[in-house]
Amino acid sequence: MTLYDAELNSAILRIKEVDAKVVCIQLPDGMKPMAQDIERAITEATSARVLIWLGSNFGACDVPLGLPKMGCDLLISWGHNQFHKKAEGW
After folding, report:
1. Percentage of the chain surpassing pLDDT 90?
2. How many angstroms from the chain centroid is the CA of residue 29?
3. What phi and psi values does residue 15 have, to the nearest 5 degrees?
4. Mind spelling out the 3-state secondary structure of 17-47?
5. Of 11, 22, 46, 68, which shows the fewest CB atoms inside 10 Å?
């Protein structure tokens, strides 16, 4: 995982904070080769089951449908850029 900083510690902390049992991870195409490494890190650090979303990920508006029906407690959607707070006056 040297190409991107996947911020796994933040993801694992959030999983533990909400005591998620089933977590869906959503990755952009460029990060999909990292999916198994991310899944392994999460399952080793938590008791959560990880589902890997293989569909699209075009940003925060591209949320996978049907996750509640699959029993997902938490969606972690990775991207290539950070979201920034909106500046005042925008």
Report:
1. 50
2. 13
3. -60, -45
4. HHCCCEEEEECCHHHHHHHHHHHHHHHHHCC
5. 68
Closest CA to 52 of 30, 20, 22: 22
The pTM of the full predicted model, rounded to 2 decimals, is 0.77
Domain interval for residue 55: 8-77
Q: Which pLDDT tens digit goes with each residue over 51-66?
A: 999 877 776 677 788 8
Q: How many domains does the chain have?
A: 1
Half-sphere exposure in the Cβ direction for 22 (13 Å, CA): 10
What DSSP character marks residue 2? -
CA distance 5 to 31: 10
Check which CATH number belongs to the domain holding 38 and give it: 3.40.50.11840
